[in-house]
Amino acid sequence: MKDLAIVTKLMLAEKRDIFYSIIAGFIAGIAAVGLFAASGYLISKAALAPPLYALIILTSTVKLLGFTRALARYAERYFSHRATFTILSNLRVSFFEKLEPLTPGIFQKYRSGDLLSRIVGDVESLQNFFLRVFYPPIVLIMVCLSTILFTLYFSIYTAILLLIGLVLTTFIVPALFTVKQRKINSRVREERGKLSTEAAELLYGFRDLKIYQKLADKEQELIVSSKSYINEQETEEINTAFSKSVNTFLSLFITWAVLGLGAYYVATGRLDGIFLAMLVMIAITVFEDASSMAVFPIYLNDTKRAANRLFSVVHEDETTEAEPGNWKELPKNKALSIEMESVSFTFPNEWRKALEDITIQLPAGSKTAIVGPSGSGKSTLLQLLLKMHPADEGDIWVGNLSSAEICQENLWNVSNVVLQENHFFYGTIRDNLRLAGDELTADEMEAALLNVQLDHFSLEDPVFEKGENLSGGEKQRLAIARAMLKGGSCWFLDEPTSSIDALTEQSIYKHLFEQAKDDTLVLVSHRLTGIEKMDQIIVMDQGRVIESGTFTELMQQKGYFYEMKEIEKDLF
């Protein structure tokens, strides 16, 4: 219910349209009841040959009520749908604002297909909250109670019958179907998530599936998932149709009961026969919207489940981070010191610690290499320094400020970052370099390309989506050029030259270290060549720091780093 309360809060921001929708719906409902009641009374009255003026008045009343009903129904649809579209817009904006700070770590918690299903499908499902859950019961109850009060003037027992019908169709029958529908809706959403995930997996892995001749197997899994989803949808529709049928049957049964009771009262002289047709027509009309209550539990469970799935993505445990207004600024053009004290971290849904009891000190302006075997936690340590993940235990300090006091965007603003996987946007070389700053000139961008030996490219050369037309080495060099153009005082480099040949790597590092000579630099690398001049080398294994010191100190210790260096010598 907490998640649904968030949706309700966003919905109530559109108070005016909500109010107009309810009022227009009430007028349309009352006008419909009045229209049919006047029609029934007109038919009975006409049979008694009343004066012409009486028939003219009754006929005009019927026409007026017909026009009123049509106009009010149009107004109801207009205001309710305008409110719904605005509510969905507010919901998307609110959700994106919560989601944005969690990226890219969010992709480690959810598969992309499932995440897409939540962001698109569940948000779309929430459009039914206002249209099918919130205001229809309010309008129906207002119309029914007003009609029952009117009917009391003619027959108290008829009014009681209408009240019983209201309770049955509005509360009891929907409540009976709620439990069953909750289970069905849950299965439908789970199957939809599985289908989206399987479809995304097939499209992303199409090339590899073709190469390994497993495309048919994956297609079969997708077909099975699709059939399962369709079956659950069929079950949902059958249950919905049955619920509507029960509500319609009860509405008609109450109408027959009103007819029988009215006929009895007319026969015994307790009711003027001229009102019988009117009461029957009222009974038929007042339950006109009973079908909306039949699907009420379906949409209620659907929206609750959608809200839970959607906001479970962005709900996090409370942290000790400062409020946005209390964040402290890091100086952009000043080298910053970095410290980690007793830091531990575990990825969500994993039992193994990725980092355990990490304590390191990187003085301002120092050059540090973090080395170790694959899976030792090097990249994870760098991600924690960049606030891509919050540490489970321990403290991280940047520039003598706790990371909890620093806005993530502010930290990234003073940093030049090259990760193992860097995204390239569809466009040109110029477009992708301009991520480092809109004020960059063509000469500055061309100089950066020259420094990373990409001067054979022009700024107008195309870049396909995800850089598909670039080689692995070209992608890395373009990412390094982008970082060089940024001009931050902290450098975070994660295997920046793993796909680059040794000669090109040497040239790039020369330009890079020349530019970063006064900056704080952290380099993650599995290669041990070229790190002799680093101020500090941190050696990691299985999420722990096992050695640290200068190149000379570590070689003299003849420990783990020495063994790695000797093995690399033998290999190359």
From TrEMBL:
Residues 338-567 form the ABC transporter domain. It is a multi-pass membrane protein. It comes from the Bacteria. GO terms for cellular component: plasma membrane. GO terms for molecular function: ABC-type transporter activity; ATP binding; ATP hydrolysis activity; ATPase-coupled lipid transmembrane transporter activity. The chain crosses the membrane at residues 18-40, 52-72, 133-154, 160-179, 249-267, 273-300. Keywords: ATP-binding, Membrane, Nucleotide-binding, Transmembrane, Transmembrane helix. One of its GO terms (biological process) is cell redox homeostasis. It is found in: Cell membrane. Residues 21-288 form the ABC transmembrane type-1 domain. This is Thiol reductant ABC exporter subunit CydC.
